[in-house]
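Example record

The entry below shows one chain as it appears in the dataset: sequence first, then structure tokens.
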Amino acid sequence: MNSGDTDDTVTKEGRIIENPLEVKEYIAGSYEKVYRGRESHPEYKEKSDEKEEEMSKTKEVQYITENEMNKAIRRLKRNN
């Protein structure tokens, strides 16, 4: 998969991740660590817990097809 790209995902241990699903999970985990490191306002905790529970139930990955992407780009170009 790697054909000399400079956009490799490398873990802090130095391992190169090439599998797209694994890359996605690694990056998502990195963001979770960043944002969980801060204390949030107490009034947001309940909503945050609800979202976290909702996300934990969602395991299905929905991929965007090239055709869907091209249609979206054409709509953006026309400002529709």
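Notes for this example: The radius of gyration is 18 Å. The chain has a mean pLDDT of 81.
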